[in-house]
Amino acid sequence: MGVPRKGQNELVLRSRIMQETKLEISKVKEEDAGLFSCRADGTNYEHTLLVVSVSASPSSELELHNKVQLHCEVKGFKQDPKVEWRSPDGSVKDPTFNIDSVTPAHSGNWVCDITYDGKHHKETLIIKVKEPAPATTTSSPTKNSKSPACPTCATPSKVSWWVWVAVGVGGFVMILLMVCVIVLCKRIKRRKKKMQRMKKGRLGSKQYCQCNRPVTKMKDLIEHVVIFISLLVSTRADEVVYAQVGERVTLKASLNTQNKYLYWKSGKQNKQLAWRNPLGGSGLGEHIPKGQYTLSGDTLIINNITEEDFGNYICEVKNEQTTTYQLLRHSVNRKPQSPLLPGDRLFLSCDADAPTGHKPPEIYWVNPQNEIITDNLKNVEATSEHHGQWTCVVKNINKEHNATVDVTVVGLSPAPSHPLYTSKSSPLTIPCTTSVSWEQFRAKGLLEVYWEFSHKESSGAISNSRQRLFNLSLEDRLSWKEDTPNGFKPVADLQKGKLSLTRKQGREYDRGDYNCTMKFKNGVELISTVQVEVLNIIASPGIVLNSGQELNLTCGHNLSSDLQLKWTAPKQSSYSESDPKGPHFTIPKVGTEDSGKWVCELWRNDTKLTSDVIKLKIEPRLSVWMLVTICSGAVIVILILIVVFILYRRRQVL
User: Fold this and answer.
1) Taking every annotated instance into account, which residue ranges of this chain make up the domain Ig-like (predicted)?
2) What digits encode the pLDDT tens for the residues 151-173?
3) What is the SS3 assignment for 631?
């Protein structure tokens, strides 16, 4: 392991090495986009960082008839990608789009769709359009008026109702205190005058006794005022807690309860639920069902909440403040409850009770793609993108409560976005899976399941004729039936939704499109198309050559720009250290050291997709001495034959 070294760039201050091989960049900026290279074990690995930014100028919260400019920018691509806005109504706009007059139709999710080399990336910008506050009418200026009109005066912002309630209650308390002080002062003055008269002997004992009555009434009034004020001061603001029916809720006391009496009460029935004393003793109130409430320390736990459990809960500490908790309902609803086919209508709704004395909560959905949806789904057409877990978020006073609901859209797993590559030296598996049970498929009227194949010609054209490879028997025991022998075998675990095909080694004829198809009684078809390409090494003029001949090796054709080819030569070859790359490789003069296995590997970034192997046989070249020796041997053999022939003829003559 080497010693990490840092440069002097400003980006270095925001970067750090994670787990020795990962680079983490914090607070990413636009200028950070570009190509990053990592060198490990003598090999360079390249990664491209793309920075996407979406914005609305001047703001994403607008009033009617305002002007706004939407921007979507991408930095880091070598070539400009396709960038476009998709408005809430589905129409396509330019990456920089001006709206001269905002209307309610512009409110919602604006999606910036970025397409590059067949890949898609989406960023969402939420535009909110609110109604303008009603303008205050002002009297028109008279001719003699010297003060000009105020065209730049801003309309005062709308104040929430609970703010007015708080101001009204505070004003009422202040007025009440002022009245009490005034009355008290007057009473004290009268009492002083009467005391002075009593000293002079002008009043009798009876009158002296009667003068205590106003003072007693005054004391009672002051006591009531003090009690009222102490109640206002000692009662803390409500805390809002959201929950679903059936959940378990924990209410934790926010007061200092150490060595003090603690009481939990129900605001609905004014009934004591649980208590705890300074000595550590604790218990539940009378007639409390066992298991419904639990007291753990100073925390009240409500188990398996029912509709009757929603309401106010009071945490009271003796001689201290009290806290009221509003336990409110959070519910989600999905229609229909059964699984859906693509094209069926889907309803999703999320509701939450509004708290008393607080702002209404913010409610929004998070879909399976982790995108924010501000509105409920009402009668929308179900697609594969709706399949998965939806989360309804209720946000109130910086607190969030999540409620989830699963949406099942019957279908096949998405096909790979890139073609699958194989070779004569590599295995091939064509994927097709589903996460839905066969009972749910049958309930939706599944008619048949089959595999089809369309061959891809060398010209790149797909054949119009389709071969049906396998057909699935939908009887009680599922089984595949082979229609056209092609060397493929279905994988096991049909009950687990695995419909894939596999073979040990690829063939050149395997190039083409494979369709995994499901048909239903209502005419709906679900098709997952997998493209297969075959990597093949072609040696020209052949794989058996004589030393000194020229050799051309070709591997792959019409490859996309994100793919790379790497050649591996035999260890004894002089090309083993040159690390040749590219689809074409030429050796001007082959030698016997070039004999052996040549490997062509196909890579996408840091992932090896497949490889093909070819074995070359190089015959040595004949030298001059070898030719002389061969020729000499041939001459000697011929002379011997001639001598033998002559001797044979002479014997016949004799």
Assistant:
1) 47-126, 320-408, 533-610
2) 334 344 445 566 677 778 777 87
3) helix
